[in-house]
Write a structure and sequence with these properties.
Elements: H1 2-47, H2 65-71, H3 74-105, H4 112-120, H5 127-137, H6 144-151, H7 166-191, H8 195-203, H9 208-219, H10 221-236, H11 240-245, H12 257-266, H13 271-294
Helix pairs in contact: 1-13, 3-7, 3-10, 4-7, 10-13, 12-13
Length: 304
């Protein structure tokens, strides 16, 4: 017993010393996280209860005044609906296309590397460059899309100046840019599915479609869940594409939450008002993420 106690006593200082080094190594990251992430979030919540304005030197506490104004603002109401519309259009289309591309490109064949690179390249392209490029492509008079339609005898619409088309076009541009990342996630997940499952199902006469529905999809469900969360959060935070393509137009028909916040903060200098909108966006993201997290056990079976 005495030997065991002495050994344990010797181990404690060593463990304590190791833990000190561990905390020391993570300290720079922790300090950066507190300064860059936590403090701005706290400041946003605080500013949302004030009338802080860059054009005025005084800042007064107004409680829920900004939130009351926001929910009475028809532009903000339409902005929330347009943000949800953007998410609803992007999420299923992204999931379906990336699953299809991953299924096609997971196996090695001649030219596979070229196609994988072609799909992934937009991911590493600057959002601004990507948006400006597609703005020229969708131009009414000289854009490539309308030029092609004209060649086959169709009069192309004003893609970016049409109230009904501005959001769908922005969704398409965002969709094409983000396909590569989710495709890579799905390819990695599909390659991890044991080949024995496919061989056994083939002996039972299962078709490729049945194998995909009953073997591939259930086994990559955790990756699908990851992609759903990342795509949902990304669609709610979209900004660069809207800024480059439409700048919220025509009128306010393509306003989304982050663009509205940007306009209120850096064009109208209403930091308190913009902070309140930021808090609402934050709560929307948290609510949707928690909803997805709480429903995962119904269709994901990787947990013990």
């Amino acid at each position: 017993m005495e030997k065991i106690t002495k050994t344990a006593g010797k181990r404690r200082p060593l463990e304590y010393r190791d833990s000190k080094w561990g905390y020391l190594f993570i300290m720079p990251m922790l300090i950066g996280f507190l300064i860059i992430t936590v403090l701005p979030i706290i400041a946003t919540f605080v500013y949302s209860t004030t009338n802080k304005n860059m054009m005025s030197r005084t800042t007064d506490f107004i409680g829920l005044g900004n939130y009351i104004k926001l929910f009475g603002d028809k532009i903000f109401q339409s902005t929330m609906l347009q943000t949800l519309e953007f998410t609803v259009l992007l999420l299923p289309s992204n999931l379906i296309l990336t699953l299809a591309l991953a299924a096609l490109l997971k196996d090695k064949f001649k030219g596979c590397g070229f196609f994988r690179t072609a799909v992934f390249t937009p991911v590493v392209t600057s959002v601004v460059v990507w948006g400006v490029l597609w703005k020229y492509i969708f131009q009414t008079d000289n854009g490539l899309v309308n030029a092609f339609l004209k060649m086959i005898g169709i009069q192309g619409p004003q893609w970016l100046m049409n109230v009904d088309l501005a959001i769908p076009v922005a969704v398409f541009v965002t969709l094409v840019k983000g396909l590569g990342m989710n495709m890579v996630i799905f390819i990695g997940a599909m390659l991890d599915v044991p080949q024995d499952y496919y061989e056994a199902s083939s002996l039972d006469g299962a078709t490729k479609m049945k194998q995909f529905l009953h073997i591939t999809l259930p086994n990559i469900a955790p990756s699908i869940f990851l992609v759903l969360i990342l795509t949902t959060i990304g669609s709610l935070k979209v900004f660069g594409q809207i800024k480059a393509l439409t700048e919220g137009g025509p009128g306010t028909s393509s306003y989304v939450m982050v663009y509205y916040i940007y306009q209120q903060a850096f064009e109208n200098y209403r930091f308190g008002y913009a902070s309140a909108a930021s808090v609402i966006l934050f709560l929307m993201i948290v609510a949707l993420t928690l909803f997805q997290w709480n429903t995962r056990k119904r269709w994901i079976h990787y947990e013990n």
